[in-house]
Amino acid sequence: xxxxxxxxxxxxxxxxxxxxxxxxxxxxxxxxxxxxxxxxxxxxxxxxxxxxxxxxxxxxxxxxxxxxxxxxxxxxxxxxxxxxxxxxxxxxxxxxxxxxxxxxxxxxxxxxxxxxxxxxxxxxxxxxxxxxxxxxxxxxxxxxxxxxxxxxxxxxxxxxxxxxxxxxxxxxxxxxxxxxxxxxxxxxxxxxxxxxxxxxxxxxxxxxxxxxxxxxxxxxxxxxxxxxxxxxxxxxxxxxxxxxxxxxxxxxxxxxxxxxxxxxxxxxxxxxxxxxxxxxxxxxxxxxxxxxxxxxxxxxxxxxxxxxxxxxxxxxxxxxxxxxxxxxxxxxxxxxxxxxxxxxxxxxxxxxxxxxxxxxxxxxxxxxxxxxxxxxxxxxxxxxxxxxxxxxxxxxxxxxxxxxxxxxxxxxxxxxxxxxxxxxxxxxxxxxxxxxxxxxxxxxxxxxxxxxxxxxxxxxxxxxxxxxxxxxxxxxxxxxxxxxxxxxxxxxxxxxxxxxxxxxxxxxxxxxxxxxxxxxxxxxxxxxxxxxxxxxxxxxxxxxxxxxxxxxxxxxxxxxxxxxxxxxxxxxxxxxxxxxxxxxxxxxxxxxxxxxxxxxxxxxxxxxxxxxxxxxxxxxxxxxxxxxxxxxxxxxxxxxxxxxxxxxxxxxxxxxxxxxxxxxxxxxxxxxxxxxxxxxxxxxxxxxxxxxxxxxxx
Length: 698
What we know:
By secondary structure, the chain is of the alpha+beta class. The protein is built from 22 helices and 28 strands. Helix 1 (23-42) links the parallel strand 1 and strand 2.
């Protein structure tokens, strides 16, 4: 670990510009990296926090093909949406770049050229999957097949999203082209490979020995598994029509592999920042006194802990990451988040439904963060965390402090009452001193959690500060004491206001919008530093005027009602139904028949006159149906889908010449035609309402 670094370089995984940002991205990468960066800035540290849009690779090409537009149109569209989402949610990047920028193309090309000229690549002709119908080599994401490790039949050519294994497209069993659906052939092509196997000893020493005790178990374990399994050379070029050209002769029509190009985006984003700010970027990447931390999701662990470090080591002048605190996956209502299936809570849509409630989502995602295992986001849990924690604990404490300060002292922070006025000794009881001492300890407690990347734990400690305030007020009951001992209440409210002032800064990394709102309410111009809170008991001084009722009466958090949550659940159910309809597998055609076979069936229009449940049978209804020929009894297995009273008078299609059958003592004379909809629910195959009973269907 880098001890007492002079500066920090913090990177957040570059989001693919093939769709908007959803809560999984926020929980896995962007909220924790933002919390960490904001915390360090409050510590007075030199911080560079960079990110950018990942605009190359197959994901972009696939999106362009699907939407019938160019890759450039795709990246321009989603880069704008993503940038706005980050701004809206307070993700405080020092620079957000694009891998389509000239500075990035130049940086990535120069990096490749440096390694090429040093002889660090292996040039090799290999057999790759080729789609003859599409007349192109298939990059990883244009191939799906069965994972050789877990048997998932929908694994991609670079990764199985079910078991997390990193793959090569040629590893897949029964591969299929996602472009045409055809089975690809093998065809020769030339590529350049990074010989990871040459760096096994370095990786063992650096990670397995050097970071055994400070990297998260889920990260360390995955890396150890890879290294123990033996590393092989990995291609850093691809046969693609979208990306950065491979800058060597004989590489026409080939592009840099997105996982070679993308992490270099951190460096090019830093360069872009330095040019704009008139600074030198190199110390943030090449000085041993710099601490480099990568925030990523678990699907990127191998690239950030093995491939990118090997690239940096091979180049020779860059520092290596001090830590890679990757999170696991966040699921949504029990199912995996999916951009392609629209199974997500999109950030831009969230703000349409919950305006100005960014911090509620930041809080819910952090308190349920998938730090060491996959976790599940549910709307009910989101509501409970807002109502039972933010509103009932944090908001309740601040509201009581502000209301009482305005009520008793016209918004002026009271002077603690004096035991001996001429000596100026504050009349703090043992309990007052105990609370103020505990308050001073919280910055160190929260810091300890944040320095170990335990953001969920740190947030819990922040809420304990609010609990400390609530308990103090509940124990002291100033609203009762004011009647007999108003001087004592001055001290009580003074102590409570110190806790409120501390909260305005301690919450800033986690809840930046709340911090701004609370600072405005308390009329505090700039955030208090971590050290100030640890060392002082007069964070907000006696005589200070907090804001008037028009501002101070503003609630930090509002209760979220059941109706709002049900709306979100209904939206997801609609998505689930749409996905079923889109992915519904239609049964293949049955064996061909002759017209005479069909003509044997006598299909008629009928109307249900009566409907009753079959005794002691859950699935059966006894129907009286007017077929136009007669009124007959038909027993139908639809009782679990329809109430008897709801289907009386319904027009139906009846097979009238089906041989009768005795069902539980009732003779059934025919059959009602049914099918199922996208929700797998039974629906009637209805004739036109104008058709008369007895009309034949032919």
